[in-house]
Amino acid sequence: MKNLFLVLLICLFSLNAFPKDGYELWLDYSSIESSSKRAEITSLFSGIYFFGQGPTQQVIQQELRLASQKMMGRDPVFTQERLNQTQLWLGTREELAQVLGLETQMQIRNLGPEGFWRGSIDFQGKTYYAIIGNQPIGVLYGVFDWLKSIQTDTFDPKSEKTDAPKVKLRMLNHWDNLDRTVERGYAGFSIWDWHRLPGFIDPRYIDYARANASLGINAVSLTNVNANAFILTPDFMKKAKVLADLFRPYGIKVFLTARFSAPIEIGGLKTADPLDPEVVAFWKKKTEEMYSFIPDFGGFLVKANSEGQPGPHEYGRNHAEGANMLADVLAPHGGIVIWRAFVYSHEIDEDRHKQANFEFEPLDGKFRDNVIIQVKNGAIDFMPREPFHPLFGAVKNTNLGMEFQITQEYLGQATQLVYLAPMWEEVLRSKTYRPSPTSTVAGIIDGSDSGQKLTLMAGVSNIGTDRNWTGHLFGQANWFAFGRQAWDPNLSSEEIAEEWIKMTFGQNKDILAKTKEIMLESREAAVNYMNPLGLHHIMGRSHHYGPAPWVEGGRADWTSLYYHRADSEGIGFDRTATGSGALNQYAPEIANSWSDPTQIPEKYLLWFHHLPWDFELKSGRSLWEEIGLHYDQGVKTARSMKSEWDSLQGQIDPERFSHVSQLLAVQVQEAEWWRNACLLYFQTFAQRPFPEEIEQPQGDLEYYKNLDFPFAPGIRPRW
Ligand code: BDP
Questions:
Q1: Alpha-carbon span 442 to 451, nearest angstrom
Q2: How many angstroms is it from 220 CA to the middle of ligand 1?
Q3: Please, are residues 20 and 26 in contact by the beta-carbon 8 Å criterion?
Q4: Which of 84, 343, 525, 529 could form a Cys-Cys staple with 637, CB 3.0–4.6 A?
């Protein structure tokens, strides 16, 4: 007996002592402290009845088992006796209605296949808690939502909740190569172990699917948009099939990237012309083959005629001809084509900002119904701050989807804590004034303003083989926030941060308040110390790590000089009518007021205007002074983020505390580096002293220019 007690004690101790490395993500299900709450939840877990059976129900059972063990230290009781022993009912609307005649109680009929209802039901004198979906996947979403309410201490059995996603496809885009390198990946290698698939199933695949399902992410493209045609060979299809089979019960569909020249590379043809009958036959056969492995295959994601990728232009065809050919072969199987709008060419003598609109506006209405044009949030390239992409609102009869970048290519990679939800919120809430005066980007994406039925929000994944999945622990918050905003683009970044913090660190009020503050100020801090006042694209060449406003030579639209245009007179890119005219691609309400440098929001000033160094800003200071103050402010905020976090020592487990604390120290150094390098460089043009009130930039410009990072992670492989 004594021995048994000892063993138990040791077990308990080692459980607690197991370092928290972030692997569990937001699904850590920390133990419920309050005894009354614990009793309430324990009672619900003590009699769970499932209406219906199937793979998704099994997944729900596993999740409930895990949650119960971790939150209450005991197994849940699943019962076959649906009345006497049951506390919690789980099932679809139809299943419950058939047995219990409860049709009228459920308001979820119109919520689509993924909607759910949860609340209390009185039946024959007893009250049950019920989680009901239109389909099993809705039940799973409802269960995750319920578990979240327990973790965030907001569960109230008396109140009911109905919810359904506002966007149809909520998708992760992995930029993962078949050799397991990840383009712009900062968290290790690809989690897809292609070489050992299909035989070996890494348990991570399931945890990945759970995490996505807990957010409502229901689609994933496994491979890099800079695609390799080999993924479309039967050997790789077999591997992808294993993943698709594993993800199906979690409601996740698999997509793959299609290399436009695949008919040549793996089909033995001489052309990839989309109008050539042999090419069409190739894609038809490939698609049929794909569906023979994956009957619910989602479709193809395509990057064509962009940054050297092959596409229809090689054959004198346009994007619609290319996309429609694929759409036609996918349509009989229910598949779709996601065609990227990230197209620009240095051979065209036009501001890169304008090129996507040039290509796609004339094609409006020409794409098939099963094509979505996936548009990056801004017209250049995932910069720390971009005005929304002018394609939103410019086309009326084309499905448009959003592409955000979760991986922090331009926002501190995996050394910096930058919470991206405020950036996405800023974009989604932007007014487009088209198609109607009240339209917003969110309204176009979710169809409420655009009327489109096929809706999509995609995020470029930040996931890799690192134990904590995302390299920086707080990268998890960006994965989480992306999923939440894709579910409902109207959620605020603040409420999402609160959910994530509570699910990740528990209920401690001090942790919540301080961490939330750090997260919410982090993105503006990064903009300030990297790209204030509308500056953009001044990062290191190729690896994109750190500042390099001096990059010149080679392809012009990949240099920094092309974008900041600093000279002895001033700085900024004139995109008004006197410059490139890109501003005119927006609705007149925007174009008119933003053409005036005294009216445009200052955060976009140098994006659209080239202005003299002495130009006076709203503060009464000169442009040069304000640039200095913004850079300096960024550094100060980074420092206060660090001290705020450090004040939580002892309240957060030592492993995660130290991981974040060390990285924040790196972030402060990187912020100083950005400020010093950029200000010293711009001073060579401005020829003015730095404002007195800022910390004077240290170091030597030549030193900064000579820094070299040949092994920085995530570099794009050369083909
Ligand atoms: C850029 C990345 C590059 C991607 C490209 C894209 O630097 O690696 O291939 O976006 O979105 O930002 O296709």
A1: 12
A2: 18
A3: no
A4: 525
Q: Please name the residues in contact with 315: beta carbons below 8 A apart, sequence gap of 6 or more.
A: 271, 272, 273, 274, 275, 276
What H or E segment, with its residue span, contains residue 62? helix 55-72
**Hey, what are 213's tokens?**
């399902």
Residue with CA nearest ligand 1 atom 2: 184
Q: What angle do CA 538, 466, 68 make, to 5 degrees?
A: 125
Mean pLDDT across 279-292: 98
The answer to whether the pTM exceeds 0.85 is: yes
* Ligand 1 atom 11: residue of nearest CA: 342
Sign of CA dihedral 505, 15, 657, 540: negative
Expressed in angstroms and rounded, the spacing between residue 373 Cα and the centre of ligand 1 is 16
Residue 578 predicted with pLDDT over 50: yes
Atom of ligand 1 nearest to the CA of 376: 11
219's CB contacts (< 8 A; 6+ apart) are 169, 170, 171, 172, 252, 253, 254, 255, 298
Which of 303, 340, 462, 716 to mutate to test ligand 1, by most ligand atoms within 8 A of the CB atom? 716
DSSP of 516-571? HHHHHHHHHHHHHHHSGGG----B-TTT--SB-TT--SSSGGGSSHHHH---SSEE
**Ligand 1 pocket, CB under 6 A:** 183-184, 225-226, 303, 307, 342, 381-382, 409, 716
Peptide bond into 387 cis (omega under 30): no
- Pairwise CA distance, residues 496 & 519, whole Å: 11
- On the question of pLDDT at 253 being above 60, the answer is yes
Phi and psi for 494 in degrees, rounded to 5? -70, -45
Written as six digits, the tokens of 138 are 């809705």
Among the atoms of ligand 1, which is closest to the Cα of residue 303? 13
Residue 458 has φ and ψ, to the nearest 5°, of: -115, 150
122: exposed, middle or buried (Cβ count in 10 Å: 0-12, 13-18, 19+): exposed
Q: How far is the CA of 396 from the centre of ligand 1 (A)?
A: 27
What is the DSSP-derived secondary structure letter of residue 176?
A: B
What is the residue with the minimal CA distance to atom 3 of ligand 1? Answer: 716
Rounded to the nearest 5 degrees, what angle is found at the Cα of 575, between the Cα atoms of 570 and 579?
75
How far is it, in rounded angstroms, from Cα 322 to Cα 371?
A: 11
Yes or no: say if 402 and 544 are a contact pair by the CB < 8 Å rule. Answer: no
Least confident interval from 92-101, 216-225, 688-697: 92-101
Using the mean position of ligand 1's atoms as its centre, give its distance from the Cα of residue 329 in Å: 27
78 residue type, one letter: F
Q: Which residue's structure tokens are 């199987």?
A: 333
Separation of alpha carbons 369 and 363, rounded Å:
13
Kindly list the structural domains of the chain, giving each domain's residue range(s) and its CATH number in brackets, ordered by start.
31-163 (3.30.379.10), 169-492 (3.20.20.80), 527-573+610-705 (3.90.1330.10)
658's enclosing H/E stretch is helix 654-686
Could you tell me if 24 and 506 are in contact, meaning their C-beta atoms sit under 8 angstroms apart?
no
The confidence score (pLDDT) of residue 110 equals 85
Inform me whether the pLDDT recorded for 504 exceeds 90.
yes
* CA-closest residue to ligand 1 atom 1: 381
Measured from the Cα of 460, ligand 1's closest atom is: 11
Confidence of residue 105 (pLDDT cuts 50, 70, 90): low
**Stated length of the chain:** 719
Question: Which neighbouring-strand residues pair with 48?
Answer: 78, 88
Catalytic residues: 307, 381, 409
| Nearest protein CA to atom 8 of ligand 1, as residue | 716
| Residues 417, 421: Cα–Cα separation, whole Å | 12
Atom of ligand 1 nearest to the CA of 226: 9
Q: Please compute the mean of the pLDDT values over residues 497-520 and round it to a whole number.
A: 97
